[in-house]
Design brief:
It is an enzyme of class 3 (hydrolase). This is Putative pre-16S rRNA nuclease. Belongs to the YqgF HJR family. Its EC number is 3.1.-.-. By secondary structure, the chain is an alpha/beta fold. It has one domain (6-137): Nucleotidyltransferase, domain 5. Helices cover 43% and strands 24% of the residues. The protein has four helices and five strands. The chain has a five-stranded mixed beta sheet, with helices on both faces. The longest helix has 19 residues, at 119-137.
């Protein structure tokens, strides 16, 4: 898939990491999967599999903030996660403000008839929203 202009996006959480993928040419994101965030070894083994499979040229990580834009308790963890992805896999990482992505994900799933209790769907959908936001806010190069 080299040269496919693929982008992976992650919604980092203490228990689960939502994953979405998209293409820089088509500029459409889709929910992909959810990875259990059990520990560092499991987390990066799973990230390695996804990166090997999709061969992204860019990674987008949601950056949680409070509604007023100030750092959230998860902000530093999400930044560290993105920096570790970059260091381990040598793929450029950008961060996107993910305020309200989970709320938007819950609304999108409800509109699609999916129960919000299905947390795995919610996390992957949040990653999709984060990636779509990146596409919508950045002019193609």
């Amino acid at each position: 898939m080299a040269g496919s202009r693929t982008v992976l996006a992650f919604d980092y959480g203490e228990r689960r990491i939502g994953v979405a993928m998209g293409n820089l040419v088509l500029r459409e994101a889709r929910a992909l999967t959810v990875v259990a965030n059990l520990n560092r070894d499991v987390r990066f083994a799973e990230m390695g599999k996804l990166i090997a499979e999709w061969q992204p040229e860019l990674i987008v990580v949601g950056l949680p903030c409070h509604p007023d834009g100030t750092p959230h308790e998860m902000t530093q963890q999400a930044r560290r996660f993105g920096n570790q992805l970059n260091g381990r896999f040598n793929v450029p990482v950008v961060w996107v403000d993910e305020r309200y992505s989970s709320v938007a994900a819950a609304a999108a799933l409800a509109d699609a008839g999916v129960k919000v209790s299905q947390k795995t769907s919610l996390d992957a959908e949040a990653a999709r929203i984060i990636l779509q936001q990146y596409f919508d806010e950045h002019v193609p190069a």
